[in-house]
Amino acid sequence: MMVACFPRRRRPSSTNADAYSSTSASGQVSARQSRASALPTKEYKLVILGGVGVGKSSLTVQFVHSSFPERYDPTIEDSYRKQAEIDGQSCMLELLDTAGNERFADRRDLHLKQGEGFILVFSITDQRSINELAALREQILRVKNTDRVPMVLVGNKCDMEDDRAVTREQGRALSEGWGNCAFYEASARQRANIDEIFYDVIRQINAQTAGKEGERHSKSIRRKVKELRCGCRVQ
Ligand SMILES: Nc1nc2c(ncn2[C@@H]2O[C@H](COP(=O)(O)OP(=O)(O)OP(=O)(O)O)[C@@H](O)[C@H]2O)c(=O)[nH]1
Ligand SMILES: [Mg+2]
Protein backbone atom coordinates (compact mmCIF):
# COMPACT_ATOMS: atom_id res chain seq x y z
CA MET A 1 0.00 0.00 0.00
CA MET A 2 2.84 2.42 0.75
CA VAL A 3 6.24 3.16 -0.63
CA ALA A 4 9.20 3.84 1.57
CA CYS A 5 12.76 4.75 0.99
CA PHE A 6 15.94 4.58 3.02
CA PRO A 7 16.93 6.98 5.71
CA ARG A 8 19.95 9.18 5.45
CA ARG A 9 21.86 9.92 8.61
CA ARG A 10 22.93 13.51 8.87
CA ARG A 11 25.05 15.48 11.26
CA PRO A 12 23.83 18.81 12.61
CA SER A 13 26.91 20.50 11.21
CA SER A 14 25.81 19.62 7.65
CA THR A 15 26.02 22.59 5.30
CA ASN A 16 22.70 21.60 3.73
CA ALA A 17 20.22 23.87 5.50
CA ASP A 18 17.20 21.98 4.15
CA ALA A 19 17.01 18.92 6.37
CA TYR A 20 14.42 17.37 4.08
CA SER A 21 15.88 17.83 0.66
CA SER A 22 18.24 15.00 -0.09
CA THR A 23 16.38 11.74 0.42
CA SER A 24 14.31 10.25 -2.41
CA ALA A 25 11.40 7.85 -2.77
CA SER A 26 11.65 4.50 -4.53
CA GLY A 27 9.77 1.21 -4.83
CA GLN A 28 6.66 -0.36 -6.24
CA VAL A 29 3.37 1.50 -6.53
CA SER A 30 0.14 -0.44 -6.09
CA ALA A 31 -2.91 -0.05 -8.36
CA ARG A 32 -4.76 1.75 -5.55
CA GLN A 33 -1.89 4.12 -5.14
CA SER A 34 -1.62 4.89 -8.84
CA ARG A 35 -5.32 5.86 -8.84
CA ALA A 36 -4.60 8.28 -5.99
CA SER A 37 -1.51 9.55 -7.78
CA ALA A 38 -3.76 10.79 -10.60
CA LEU A 39 -4.41 13.66 -8.15
CA PRO A 40 -1.46 15.93 -7.49
CA THR A 41 0.65 14.55 -4.64
CA LYS A 42 0.59 16.71 -1.53
CA GLU A 43 3.76 17.09 0.50
CA TYR A 44 3.86 17.15 4.28
CA LYS A 45 6.75 17.81 6.63
CA LEU A 46 6.48 16.06 9.97
CA VAL A 47 8.91 16.28 12.87
CA ILE A 48 9.25 13.59 15.54
CA LEU A 49 10.40 14.90 18.92
CA GLY A 50 10.89 13.64 22.47
CA GLY A 51 13.46 12.61 25.06
CA VAL A 52 16.32 10.15 24.79
CA GLY A 53 15.35 6.55 24.04
CA VAL A 54 11.57 7.01 24.09
CA GLY A 55 11.26 5.27 20.71
CA LYS A 56 11.10 8.09 18.14
CA SER A 57 13.26 6.22 15.63
CA SER A 58 11.51 2.91 16.28
CA LEU A 59 8.09 4.48 15.64
CA THR A 60 9.34 6.15 12.48
CA VAL A 61 11.08 3.04 11.13
CA GLN A 62 8.04 0.93 11.96
CA PHE A 63 5.84 3.39 10.04
CA VAL A 64 8.17 3.66 7.06
CA HIS A 65 9.57 0.12 6.80
CA SER A 66 7.15 -1.95 8.87
CA SER A 67 10.02 -3.32 10.93
CA PHE A 68 11.31 -2.90 14.47
CA PRO A 69 15.02 -2.14 14.90
CA GLU A 70 16.07 -4.20 17.93
CA ARG A 71 19.43 -2.44 18.34
CA TYR A 72 19.44 0.96 20.01
CA ASP A 73 21.29 3.45 17.86
CA PRO A 74 21.00 7.00 19.25
CA THR A 75 19.94 9.47 16.60
CA ILE A 76 21.68 12.65 15.62
CA GLU A 77 19.25 13.48 12.82
CA ASP A 78 17.59 11.17 10.29
CA SER A 79 15.18 11.97 7.51
CA TYR A 80 12.81 9.69 5.64
CA ARG A 81 10.37 10.00 2.80
CA LYS A 82 7.32 7.84 2.48
CA GLN A 83 4.53 7.86 -0.02
CA ALA A 84 1.08 7.03 1.29
CA GLU A 85 -2.54 7.35 0.31
CA ILE A 86 -4.54 9.09 3.00
CA ASP A 87 -8.28 9.69 2.56
CA GLY A 88 -7.94 9.12 -1.21
CA GLN A 89 -5.16 11.67 -1.50
CA SER A 90 -1.66 10.74 -2.61
CA CYS A 91 0.77 12.12 -0.05
CA MET A 92 4.52 12.37 0.18
CA LEU A 93 5.50 12.48 3.82
CA GLU A 94 8.85 13.92 4.75
CA LEU A 95 9.73 12.77 8.23
CA LEU A 96 12.43 14.22 10.38
CA ASP A 97 13.51 11.99 13.26
CA THR A 98 15.31 14.21 15.76
CA ALA A 99 17.82 13.55 18.52
CA GLY A 100 16.55 13.10 22.05
CA ASN A 101 19.94 14.12 23.27
CA GLU A 102 19.98 17.84 24.07
CA ARG A 103 23.58 18.05 22.81
CA PHE A 104 22.13 18.03 19.29
CA ALA A 105 19.26 20.45 19.93
CA ASP A 106 20.97 23.43 18.28
CA ARG A 107 19.09 22.97 14.98
CA ARG A 108 15.74 22.40 16.62
CA ASP A 109 14.34 25.87 15.88
CA LEU A 110 15.10 25.33 12.18
CA HIS A 111 13.32 21.95 12.22
CA LEU A 112 10.33 23.42 14.02
CA LYS A 113 10.12 26.26 11.53
CA GLN A 114 10.15 23.82 8.59
CA GLY A 115 7.78 21.29 10.15
CA GLU A 116 4.05 21.42 9.51
CA GLY A 117 3.02 18.70 11.96
CA PHE A 118 4.65 17.43 15.13
CA ILE A 119 4.71 14.06 16.89
CA LEU A 120 5.72 14.41 20.54
CA VAL A 121 6.78 11.11 22.06
CA PHE A 122 7.28 9.94 25.62
CA SER A 123 7.78 6.44 26.97
CA ILE A 124 5.13 5.05 29.32
CA THR A 125 8.04 3.48 31.25
CA ASP A 126 9.71 6.81 31.98
CA GLN A 127 8.00 9.53 34.02
CA ARG A 128 10.70 12.07 33.17
CA SER A 129 10.07 11.65 29.48
CA ILE A 130 6.49 12.99 29.75
CA ASN A 131 7.57 15.85 32.00
CA GLU A 132 10.04 17.01 29.36
CA LEU A 133 7.41 17.48 26.66
CA ALA A 134 5.78 20.67 27.95
CA ALA A 135 8.93 22.67 27.22
CA LEU A 136 9.16 21.15 23.74
CA ARG A 137 5.58 22.08 22.98
CA GLU A 138 6.20 25.63 24.21
CA GLN A 139 9.18 25.85 21.89
CA ILE A 140 7.04 24.68 18.94
CA LEU A 141 4.32 27.27 19.68
CA ARG A 142 6.92 30.00 20.07
CA VAL A 143 8.66 29.18 16.80
CA LYS A 144 5.37 28.76 14.88
CA ASN A 145 3.98 31.87 16.58
CA THR A 146 0.53 30.33 17.02
CA ASP A 147 -1.27 28.09 19.50
CA ARG A 148 -2.93 25.99 16.77
CA VAL A 149 -0.27 23.59 15.56
CA PRO A 150 -1.03 20.10 14.15
CA MET A 151 0.30 17.85 16.88
CA VAL A 152 -0.03 14.34 18.30
CA LEU A 153 1.07 13.21 21.76
CA VAL A 154 2.32 9.61 21.87
CA GLY A 155 2.92 7.36 24.88
CA ASN A 156 5.18 4.72 23.33
CA LYS A 157 6.21 1.26 24.61
CA CYS A 158 2.68 0.35 25.70
CA ASP A 159 3.70 -3.30 25.28
CA MET A 160 5.78 -2.84 28.47
CA GLU A 161 2.81 -2.79 30.81
CA ASP A 162 4.79 -4.30 33.71
CA ASP A 163 7.22 -1.37 33.61
CA ARG A 164 4.55 1.30 33.25
CA ALA A 165 5.46 4.52 35.10
CA VAL A 166 3.02 6.89 33.36
CA THR A 167 -0.69 6.12 33.56
CA ARG A 168 -2.95 6.44 30.55
CA GLU A 169 -4.90 9.10 32.48
CA GLN A 170 -1.73 11.17 32.87
CA GLY A 171 -1.20 11.14 29.12
CA ARG A 172 -4.83 11.99 28.49
CA ALA A 173 -4.75 14.82 31.05
CA LEU A 174 -1.68 16.32 29.40
CA SER A 175 -3.30 16.16 25.97
CA GLU A 176 -6.45 17.82 27.33
CA GLY A 177 -4.32 20.55 28.85
CA TRP A 178 -2.88 21.05 25.38
CA GLY A 179 -6.28 22.05 23.97
CA ASN A 180 -7.46 18.46 23.43
CA CYS A 181 -4.44 17.49 21.38
CA ALA A 182 -4.71 13.98 19.87
CA PHE A 183 -3.24 11.32 22.19
CA TYR A 184 -2.29 7.74 21.44
CA GLU A 185 -0.58 5.03 23.39
CA ALA A 186 1.48 3.06 20.92
CA SER A 187 4.00 0.30 20.59
CA ALA A 188 6.68 0.45 17.96
CA ARG A 189 7.59 -3.13 18.88
CA GLN A 190 4.09 -4.47 18.28
CA ARG A 191 3.15 -2.00 15.53
CA ALA A 192 0.22 -0.73 17.61
CA ASN A 193 -1.35 2.61 16.59
CA ILE A 194 1.53 3.44 14.25
CA ASP A 195 -0.34 4.47 11.09
CA GLU A 196 -2.99 6.15 13.25
CA ILE A 197 -0.41 8.56 14.72
CA PHE A 198 1.00 9.70 11.40
CA TYR A 199 -2.37 9.83 9.63
CA ASP A 200 -3.88 11.86 12.46
CA VAL A 201 -1.31 14.62 12.15
CA ILE A 202 -1.77 14.67 8.34
CA ARG A 203 -5.53 15.04 8.80
CA GLN A 204 -4.95 17.91 11.24
CA ILE A 205 -2.75 19.65 8.66
CA ASN A 206 -5.46 19.14 6.01
CA ALA A 207 -8.17 20.46 8.35
CA GLN A 208 -6.08 23.51 9.16
CA THR A 209 -5.38 24.19 5.47
CA ALA A 210 -9.09 23.80 4.64
CA GLY A 211 -9.96 26.13 7.54
CA LYS A 212 -7.55 28.77 6.28
CA GLU A 213 -8.93 28.49 2.74
CA GLY A 214 -12.48 28.77 4.13
CA GLU A 215 -11.45 31.83 6.11
CA ARG A 216 -9.91 33.43 3.01
CA HIS A 217 -13.10 32.68 1.05
CA SER A 218 -15.37 34.20 3.73
CA LYS A 219 -13.11 37.26 3.96
CA SER A 220 -13.38 37.80 0.21
CA ILE A 221 -17.19 37.44 0.36
CA ARG A 222 -17.34 39.92 3.25
CA ARG A 223 -15.19 42.33 1.24
CA LYS A 224 -17.50 42.02 -1.79
CA VAL A 225 -20.60 42.59 0.35
CA LYS A 226 -18.97 45.71 1.82
CA GLU A 227 -18.10 46.95 -1.67
CA LEU A 228 -21.69 46.41 -2.80
CA ARG A 229 -23.01 48.30 0.25
CA CYS A 230 -20.81 51.30 -0.41
CA GLY A 231 -21.64 51.26 -4.11
CA CYS A 232 -18.23 50.23 -5.39
CA ARG A 233 -18.00 48.01 -8.47
CA VAL A 234 -17.34 44.35 -7.83
CA GLN A 235 -15.15 42.46 -10.33
N1 LIG B 1 9.47 -2.75 24.27
C1 LIG B 1 9.61 -1.71 23.45
N2 LIG B 1 10.83 -1.16 23.22
C2 LIG B 1 10.89 -0.12 22.39
C3 LIG B 1 9.77 0.42 21.73
N3 LIG B 1 10.18 1.47 20.97
C4 LIG B 1 11.50 1.55 21.15
N4 LIG B 1 11.95 0.60 21.99
C5 LIG B 1 13.33 0.39 22.42
O1 LIG B 1 13.78 1.58 23.10
C6 LIG B 1 15.14 1.88 22.76
C7 LIG B 1 15.24 3.27 22.16
O2 LIG B 1 14.50 3.29 20.96
P1 LIG B 1 14.77 4.41 19.84
O3 LIG B 1 13.70 4.28 18.83
O4 LIG B 1 16.15 4.34 19.34
O5 LIG B 1 14.58 5.72 20.72
P2 LIG B 1 14.82 7.23 20.26
O6 LIG B 1 13.75 8.02 20.90
O7 LIG B 1 14.92 7.32 18.80
O8 LIG B 1 16.21 7.54 20.94
P3 LIG B 1 17.24 8.77 20.57
O9 LIG B 1 17.47 8.73 19.12
O10 LIG B 1 18.48 8.46 21.36
O11 LIG B 1 16.62 10.02 21.03
C8 LIG B 1 15.58 0.78 21.79
O12 LIG B 1 16.25 -0.21 22.52
C9 LIG B 1 14.27 0.23 21.24
O13 LIG B 1 14.38 -1.13 20.86
C10 LIG B 1 8.49 -0.19 21.98
O14 LIG B 1 7.44 0.20 21.48
N5 LIG B 1 8.47 -1.24 22.85
MG1 LIG C 1 16.38 7.96 17.61
TrEMBL record:
UniProt keyword Membrane, yes or no: yes
InterPro entries: P-loop_NTPase, Small_GTP-bd, Small_GTPase, Small_GTPase_Ras-type
Region Disordered: start-end pairs: 1-34
Pfam families referenced in this protein's UniProt entry, alphabetically: Ras (PF00071)
GO process annotations (BP): signal transduction
Assigned keywords, A-Z: Cell membrane, GTP-binding, Hydrolase, Membrane, Nucleotide-binding
Composition bias type Polar residues, residue spans: 13-34
Its EC number(s): 3.6.5.2
Cross-referenced Gene3D superfamilies: P-loop containing nucleotide triphosphate hydrolases
Name the record gives this protein: small monomeric GTPase
